[in-house]
Every structure is written in structure tokens, then in C-alpha cells.
From TrEMBL:
Coiled coil: none annotated. PROSITE patterns: ABC_TRANSPORTER_2 (PS50893). It comes from Paenibacillus vini. SUPFAM superfamilies: P-loop containing nucleoside triphosphate hydrolases. The keyword Transferase does not apply. This is Daunorubicin ABC transporter ATP-binding protein. CDD domains: ABC_NatA_like (cd03267). Gene3D superfamilies: P-loop containing nucleotide triphosphate hydrolases. The keyword Transport applies. Residues 24-257 form the ABC transporter domain. GO terms for molecular function: ATP binding. InterPro entries: AAA+_ATPase, ABC_transporter-like_ATP-bd, ABC_transporter_ATP-binding, P-loop_NTPase.
Length: 351
């Protein structure tokens, strides 16, 4: 069963076109001209119940506009969408009982009152019974360690403390679908790690469907098996994170530390016939670059047992670099030389 279904979804805005000069400003007073700008351009995707999906894109790609349509804040210009079996903008009162939303740069808590008072107000908004509210609140407070924060005004919380409280506020009514828009923005690495672990536990224990938008690709790597990538309002990739790495990654680096001196020429001789590149600053350490089509084990097999190795480190493809390369090219199709005919000429999944 799909928690979210989107078909040919489109959203356009009218943007006033300002004419130049005093004469143009005077004309704009009486007759305004508008340009039509498409923020989301006929996108389609489905998210099964219980999946954690990353929804990524550069600023202005259309991520927030999509989230606002999925949560019922904006009405689509055209297309169809269903979230939890509801059309968000048509059945908003019933619909909001089944979703939770966290916007990293906006708060749903009241600034000058205690955190627990905000939770009590939200209980009434979502029409949660006192018994269910207490059980759910106790569970979330214990899991996120908020016992000492409940009576503090929100304005006296640190950013990390406030974001943990925002998560509780979004989950008090036990929604089946949660939208997270930059939930870890501005947080230190310890708090980010805590929030990621909490989200994984929530998904595993309750089967909560999560759509996550973020610029922090470590969030994506930690939480998501699937990625939807948006560029200029269109989906340019929809598929697995590992598939993305395998197709766009250029290779892996293996770093060796040796107990006794090992010459670079000797390492190159041991791996002769393999298309790898060695480099070394001294005889006690070396690095080898291995293309994706070569198994790391094939290279290790030529070195292990012959050299006095004290440490080995394998560095995988950097997701940040992959995504940056895709946006620079404007397409998630792997580019190859015109003279090359390889598996990389196959096209990635487009929606």
C-alpha cells in the first residue's frame, strides 16, 4: 500500500513583472503585468507505507513547494495527489490527524509558554484523548530525554533542545506519515546523531512513513535507502542511494600503512595488469585508487601477505561530490565518452 501517491503534479505562480523607470512604475499602478513561473513541473512518484525517502534538491528546485502541496498548505495547479488516502487540500481537517510536520526553520511551539503547555494545546488541536496523550508523551519524553525541559519557555531552549521538542509536537497524535523539512539544520553533530537514531527507531517500531528534505546528505545516508532528486521543478533521479553511488561514483580509495618500508615500484609490480593508480609520500604509507569495475578484494589479494601491513582503510564514494556532479551536469544520466560503450550508457530511472 502506498502512503503517498503523486501523479503529474504541477504548481505555477504568477509573479509581477515590474517595468523599468518612473513611467513603468506609473503604468504598474494601473495595469500590472505578470509572468507565470512553474515551481513544480509535472512530477510523479509513489512512496510505500513505512518507507523513509530522501527528497533532495538545490535551493529553488521545488522541494518546499512539493511539501506544501503534500501537507495541504498549497493547492496544486494541476495533477493528482493522495496522502494517507486523503486529498490534502480538499479534506484538510481529517487529513491533518494522520500527518506530522517539522519545519527546521519554523516552530509550531508557543514562544513564551512552557513546552508542556504547548503540548497540551496541540493535544486539543489534534483531538487526542488524555489517556493516549499521556502514554504517547511519556514515551517520547523518555526517548528524547526531555524531562528537564517540559516547564521551560520555548524561548529559553537551545536550538537542539527546541528541535527535539518540535519532533515531540509533530508526533503527539501518532501520525502514520511525517514530513521533515531540514530537521537537523544548524544542529551540532551530537544532536544530529540523536535525532537520526530516534527517527530510525520510530520508523522501525511504528512503521511511520517519512519524507525527508535536507541539504545535509549525511542525514540521507543515515536514514534513507531511496532518494528522489529534484532539479528546476523536475525529478531527475528516483531510486536507491547505493545505485546512485555505483553509477556516479568514480571509484574507491584504499589507504595502507606498512610496518616496514615498501617501495611504490614494488606495489605497482604486484598489481600489474589491474587498472589502479598508486601514490605514496613515503615507504611506510601508500594509497591506491580503484575504479568501480574492479573489486577491492582483487587488489588486496595482490598486496596482503606480501607486504608488512599494519592498517588498511577503505574510503567509499562521497555522496556530496556525487550530488554536486549531477547538479552541475543537469542530469542524473551517467556521462561517458562518445567512443566508449559501457554499461554506464544505460539510463537511470526517470519519473
Amino acid at each position: 500500500m502506498n502512503a503517498i501517491e503523486v501523479k503529474d503534479l504541477r504548481k505555477t505562480f504568477k509573479v509581477q513583472k515590474n517595468r523599468e523607470g518612473l513611467k513603468g512604475a506609473f503604468q504598474d499602478l494601473f495595469k500590472r503585468q505578470y509572468n507565470e513561473v512553474a515551481a513544480v513541473k509535472d512530477i510523479s512518484f509513489q512512496i510505500p507505507q513505512g518507507e523513509i525517502c530522501g527528497y533532495i534538491g538545490e535551493n529553488g528546485a521545488g522541494k518546499s513547494t512539493t511539501i506544501k502541496m503534500l501537507t495541504g498548505i498549497l493547492v496544486p495547479t494541476s495533477g493528482h495527489l493522495s496522502v494517507g488516502g486523503f486529498v490534502p487540500y480538499e479534506e484538510r481537517e481529517k487529513f491533518v490527524q494522520h500527518i506530522g510536520v517539522v519545519f527546521g526553520q519554523r516552530s509550531q511551539l508557543w514562544w513564551d509558554i512552557g513546552v508542556i503547555e504547548s503540548f497540551q494545546l496541540l493535544r486539543k488541536v489534534y483531538k487526542v484523548s488524555e489517556q493516549d496523550f499521556k502514554r504517547r508523551l511519556d514515551e517520547l519524553v523518555e526517548r528524547l530525554q526531555l524531562q528537564d525541559l517540559l516547564n521551560r519557555p520555548v524561548r529559553k531552549l537551545s536550538l537542539g533542545q527546541r528541535m527535539r521538542c518540535e519532533l515531540v509536537a509533530a508526533l503527539l497524535h501518532n501520525p502514520s506519515i511525517v514530513f521533515l523539512d531540514e530537521p537537523t539544520i544548524g544542529l551540532d553533530i551530537v544532536v544530529k546523531s540523536e535525532i537520526r537514531e530516534f527517527l530510525k527507531d520510530m520508523n522501525r517500531e511504528h512503521g511511520t512513513t517519512i519524507l525527508l528534505t535536507t541539504h545535509d546528505l549525511q542525514d540521507i545516508e543515515a536514514l534513507c535507502s531511496r532518494v528522489i532528486m529534484l532539479d528546476d521543478g523536475r525529478i531527475i533521479y528516483d531510486g536507491g542511494l547505493e545505485e546512485l553511488k555505483n553509477r556516479w561514483g568514480t571509484g574507491r580509495e584504499v589507504q595502507f600503512q606498512f610496518g616496514t618500508g615498501t617501495k611504490l615500484a614494488q606495489l605497482q609490480a604486484w598489481t600489474a595488469g589491474l587498472p589502479v593508480e598508486w601514490s605514496a609520500e613515503n615507504d611506510l604509507g601508500a594509497k591506491v585508487w580503484i575504479p568501480l569495475e574492479i573489486n577491492v578484494s582483487d587488489v588486496l589479494g595482490q598486496v596482503v601477505g606480501k607486504a608488512d601491513i599494519t592498517d588498511i582503510k577503505i574510503i567509499e564514494t562521497n555522496t556530496d561530490d556525487i550530488v554536486r556532479s549531477i547538479y552541475q551536469s543537469g542530469s542524473a544520466e551517467k556521462k561517458t565518452d562518445a567512443n566508449d560503450v559501457t554499461e554506464d550508457e544505460s539510463v537511470m530511472t526517470h519519473v
